[in-house]
Write a structure and sequence with these properties.
Blueprint: E1 3-8, H1 16-31, E2 35-40, H2 46-57, H3 64-88, E3 93-96, E4 103-105, E5 114-117, H4 120-127, E6 131-135, E7 138-140, E8 146-148, H5 154-164, E9 169-174, E10 195-197, H6 198-206, H7 214-223, E11 227-231, E12 239-242, E13 254-258, E14 262-270, H8 275-285, E15 293-295, E16 302-309, H9 314-323, H10 325-328, E17 332-336, E18 339-345, H11 355-365, E19 372-376, E20 379-385, H12 389-401
Parallel strand pairs: 1-2, 1-9, 2-6, 3-6, 9-11, 10-12
Antiparallel strand pairs: 4-5, 7-8, 11-12, 13-18, 14-16, 14-17, 15-16, 18-20, 19-20
Helix pairs in contact: 1-3, 2-3, 5-7, 6-7, 11-12
This protein binds aspartic acid and magnesium ion (MG).
Aspartic acid binds next to loops.
């Protein structure tokens, strides 16, 4: 007998038929004698629809407290429907909102952090042999106000319960059947991985491989919660995310593409101390997350700095830099939104020379120009024209994974 945490995303519970199917999946585990705790997201596009409703009333979306109150309603609907489906099939079940399930968070509405999960209620319900259905994505702060954890937060809710309950496994059900070596819609030869490490998954999650929310992976790593990503439609094994995987020779675990990037160039800066500090300090004040940074060698007293930011931050960054033009003294600032980042991720590259060269060769063979490069211990990213991105992913995938 085990404690199993299962999380079902919005598409898995999108309509009555899907809810019934999820109920069957849950019951199957329960009938084997396991304690089953289930976390669900709002049905289908409910959260987006609720955000639209808020905008109809107030284009700015209103206060974050009220927005959380509204958004939390999405998960309230899905837990009740799922519990009803299980009840109808004749099994003991109870649905709980985030606060009822013990989710205590800080007060950052819309992006709250879980401080702890008070498991008393969960344990009581399990002791009564109930299947427990918990609303993902939500909690309560110290003022007893409802909070939400940020988009895609139900994965984090599931991992938090698994950690607090010391569950044997945390299964994340979604509409794909696991984590792939590249986007299978774009790369025919993409393969499903049986296993991946937390660090590799974190890099891929951050790079836009949208299977798991990256905060959930961070938390799983911290509390050593083994995750399984699997399909809610097909009954077959998915991808296991854990600390150490049986190291086969695969150097590169996956190739990811991120089109949510803009590159910003500041040209003709004074080549003297403090320039970079002033730029990035200003961006930090605007809470702009900078990724790749490139500074040219100073020539005749000037230098250029180019960096990338998330696309929606491009204009904000340019405005901030334009406002500093007099104090900073540069020739021009420009933004390019037609770029994409293509990255390879793999814990194996740490101990293998030549990985970068092989990636660049693959891009060269495909006549793709690299604009910027950045590396970490287990990742190499290149910035290139968005038009080349899919071709680049395929070329690099072919070079390493086929
Ligand atoms: N329903 C929330 C969202 O759409 C949380 C989640 O899906 O995990 O962001
Ligand atoms: Mg959702």
């Amino acid at each position: 007998m085990a404690i199993i945490v299962k999380k079902f995303g919005g598409s898995s519970v999108a309509d009555a038929q899907r809810v019934q199917h999820v109920a069957d999946t849950i019951i199957e585990d329960y009938q084997k004698g396991n304690d089953v705790i289930v976390v669900v997201s709002a049905q289908g596009d409910t959260t987006d629809d609720l955000i639209e409703k808020a905008k109809e009333i107030n284009p700015d979306g209103g206060s974050k407290r009220e927005l959380d109150m509204l958004l939390a309603a999405g998960e309230q609907i899905s837990i009740a429907l799922l519990a009803m489906a299980i009840e109808k099939k004749g099994f003991p079940v109870i649905s709980l909102l985030g606060w009822q399930a013990g989710f205590e968070t800080d007060s950052h509405h819309g992006i709250a952090r879980i401080k702890r999960v008070n498991t008393e209620r969960l344990r009581n319900e399990i002791a009564k042999k109930n299947i427990v259905i918990v609303a993902g994505f939500q909690g309560i702060n110290k003022y007893d106000d409802v909070t939400t954890l940020g988009r895609g937060g139900s994965d984090t809710s599931a991992v938090a319960i698994a950690a607090a309950m010391k569950a044997d496994v945390c299964q994340i059900y979604t509409d794909v059947d696991g984590v792939y070596t590249a986007d299978p819609r774009k790369v025919e030869t993409a393969r499903k991985m049986d296993e991946i490490t937390y660090d590799e998954m974190l890099e891929l999650a951050t790079l836009g491989a949208q299977v798991l929310n990256n905060r959930s992976v961070e938390m799983a790593k911290k509390y050593n919660v083994e995750l399984e990503v699997l399909s809610s439609l097909e009954n077959k094994p998915g991808t296991i995310v854990k600390e150490i995987v049986k190291m086969e020779k695969t150097l590169i675990r996956g190739v990811a593409k991120d089109t949510n990037v803009a590159s910003i160039s500041v040209v003709g800066l004074a080549d003297k101390p403090g320039t970079a500090f002033k730029i990035f300090n200003k961006l930090a004040q605007h809470k702009i997350n900078v990724d790749i940074i490139l500074q040219s060698v100073g020539r005749s007293g000037t230098k250029d700095i180019t960096f990338t930011v998330p696309k929606d931050m491009g204009k904000i960054a340019v405005d901030a830099l334009t406002a500093m033009k007099d104090s900073l003294k540069y020739e021009s600032v420009s933004v390019d939104e037609s770029v994409a980042k293509v990255s390879i991720v793999g814990a194996g590259m740490e101990s293998h020379p030549g990985v970068a060269a092989k990636m660049f060769e693959a891009l060269y063979d495909a006549s793709i120009n690299i604009q910027m490069i950045s590396t970490s211990e287990i990742k190499i990213s290149v910035l290139l024209s968005a038009d080349d991105a899919d071709r680049a992913v395929r070329a690099v995938h072919d070079a390493f994974i086929d």
